[in-house]
Amino acid sequence: MAGVPFDQMTGKIWFNGEFVDWADAKVHVLTHGLHYGSSVFEGERAYGGVIFKSREHTERLHESARVLDFKLPYSVDEIEEAKRQVLQINGFTDAYLRPVAWRGSEMMGVSAQKNKINVAVAAWQWPSYFDPEERLKGIRLDIAAYRRPDPATAPVKSKAAGLYMICTISKHAAEAKGYADAMMLDWQGRVAECTGANIFFVKDGVIHTPIADCFLDGITRRTAIELARARGWEVVERRIMPDELEGFSECFITGTAAEVTPVSEIGPYRFTPGEICETMLKDYLVAVMPASEVPEKLVAAG
Fold it and tell me: Which fold has domain 6-125?
């Protein structure tokens, strides 16, 4: 499907309780979610036909909707079953899933209490790929101009579509300069996260990560913390100032798409992916992949 626009892909999408052809999963141009950002979503990944921490994602979708003042018309169990069926009916095993919910077109204005809440689940193939040597080279990050908002000014605990506008702007700016992504600061100028991934640093064998109070406490972030502590490594969640970056030896980011990806550069700061980066990304892949699909190089390294 490489290079095919998403509206031209083929397959089935679960749309308000029914399966429809990919091309028929449409919304009207006067949909509230399009104009006012009243939409929430999840990004999930299936390995070997199993969606990693699926229920946690669905529960977060419900919570995100609650924060935006709407209630999903489908229970956690119903959405869980929809995701399972989406994989099955499309014949996918290694795939990315996008559950999404949004306010419809019944009212067009800031106030939208009577709007129908729509829910859809789409999936597309995303083959499992893992080359530790290539990934350990690390990616390059810019430092974004936009900052994560003050929790008093935005619903930062919701995975709301509108909150990603500044992420898109920041990632475009970074890519235009040759970077893979951008690290964002929070409203007080402290290190926060990347445009779609959480961030970790290493110093003297201790892992440091920003407190998740103005951005999502990612499911992959929590998994990485669990894996690190299972290794006996100390993980400190704290405020991190940008000028501290020169004192860290390693850096990596985490997310459904990023999995665990080492970082070699953030603006003027340099890092050398080492033992902790290598172990973290290997431990993560072993955790999410079926045992039969884990590459021999990971088994040997474990």
Answer: D-amino Acid Aminotransferase; Chain A, domain 1 (3.30.470)
